[in-house]
Amino acid sequence: MTGSDLPQGVQRFLRVHIDSIEKLEVLLLLRNRAERPWTASEVALELRITEVSSTARLEDLASSELLVRNGETPVEYRFSPARSDDVRAISELALTYSERRVSIITFIFSKPTERVQGFADAFLLRKKRDDDPG
């Protein structure tokens, strides 16, 4: 499955912002409970992941301007996308994920990561053209 059954906006958002199911789950948790701030340890406990992983996912999402962080200790994060397009895409993603979870998961796992794609591209064999002297 290539994800062609997913809405274009969802596919675009996933390609740009989501590289793991864990990151998706963190984003949707904070979206679904946007009324409160979350620490990395609270997210880790809620999703049953490590605090190190939780911190990394939260920081990635904050760097993508999907979450905001306070400057206090411990750092707290809130769902607050900077762009209205992202708010709409995340709403559509949340709905699609609740209806077609397997399609979303398959799409995320089928995306080549940049490093893997770059490595694979280095080995592409190009067809020799007739006008190519080499």
Q: Report the C-alpha radius of gyration, rounded.
A: 18 Å
Quote the beta fraction. 5-15%
Q: How far is it from the N-terminal to the C-terminal residue, by CA?
A: 39 Å
Low-confidence stretches: none
Largest sheet: 3 strands, antiparallel
Proportion in helices? 55-70%
The whole-number mean of residue pLDDT values reads 88
SS-based class: mainly alpha
Described by the principal axes of the CA atoms, the overall outline is globular
The string of secondary-structure elements, in order, is HHEHHEEHHH
Our count of helices gives 7
Summarize this, please?
With 134 residues, this protein is mainly alpha-helical.
What does this structure look like?
There is one protein chain. The protein has 134 residues and is mainly α. It is built from seven helices and three strands, in the order ααβααββααα. The longest helix has 16 residues, at 84-99. It starts with 7 loop residues before the first helix and ends in a 13-residue tail after the last helix.
